[in-house]
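G., the chain you wanted modeled:
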Amino acid sequence: MTSPTPLPRSVDPALLHDRITAWFASAARDLPWRRGVSPWAVMVSEFMLQQTPVARVLPVYEAWVQRWPTPADLAAEPAGEAVRAWGRLGYPRRALRLHAAATAITQRHGGDVPTSRDELLALPGVGDYTAAAITSFAFGGRAVVMDTNIRRVFARVVGGVELPAPAVTAAERRLATSLLPADDAHVWAAATMELGALVCTARSPQCGVCPVADACRWRALGHPAHDGPARRGQSWEGTDRQCRGRLLAVLRDETGPVPSAALDAVWPEAVQRARCLDGLVADGLVEPVGDDSFALPGHR
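Predicted structure as C-alpha cells:
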C-alpha cells in the first residue's frame, strides 16, 4: 500500500480529544452496557459484540444478564444452556468460551471479574482486544482499545487512508498509544468507537457531521480509495455456517436428545450435513447421545 502524501500540518491530539469526546457526550447511544452495570455485564456485551451488530445483540444481552447476573449463575448451569441462550447471534463457540470464562472466574477469582490484564488474558475467550475493552469499559482503566471502528477512524483521520490493514499492526498500536489521553482514556475509547460506528462508517462516512472533519487527513487528500487487497463480504446461503446454524437451531428448541432424522430434515445435502455435525461435535457445541441422537452439552 502506498504511503499517503504528507500534509503541511500535523494532527493535534488535544483537538481530537476535545472534539470527539464533546461529540460523544451528546451523540452517544443509550446502550445498556453503558449504564453503570457490573464488570460481568460489560464482559458479556464484549463477547456478544464480536463480529455482531448492536441491534442483534441487544435482546440477547438483556435476556442473558437477567438470567445470569453473575458469573457464578452461569457457571452453575450446563454449557448447553449458554449455547441455547446464545440464539442466532452466530459464532456460537463464543457462548462456550463465555461459559468457560464464567467457570474460571467463579473458581479462581471468587466470582469477580479480575482487574489484572494478565488474569483477564488467562480467561477462556479473552484476547488482547477483549482484555483492553474490559479494563477500559468495566473498570475505567487506561488501555489501548483497538476495535474495527476505532482503527478505521485513526486510519482516516491520522493515516489518510480509507481502511486499516486487515490485522492490527505494530504501527497502529504505537499510534493509538500516542493518542491515548492521560485522563479519561475509557471515555476516549468509547467516543472513538462510537464515531466509527455512527459517522466514520466503512461504506457511507458522514463527513458533513463529523466533529473532526477539518482535521481529517483522508478528507484533505480527497478521500482516496482503498488500494490494498479487496475486502470480501462473507457469503451465507448454502455455506457450512448456515448448515451448522440450522442444526443448532433444532437442538436449541429441544430440552433433550434429538434423533438424527430430525436433523436430516433441516438440511438436504447429506455429505455437508454430516461434515457440519461432526464439526459441531468437535467444537464441543453438540454431544452424541447413543448411536443415533445428539444434544446440547450437558443435556444427554
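The chain has a mean pLDDT of 93.

Shout if anything looks off.
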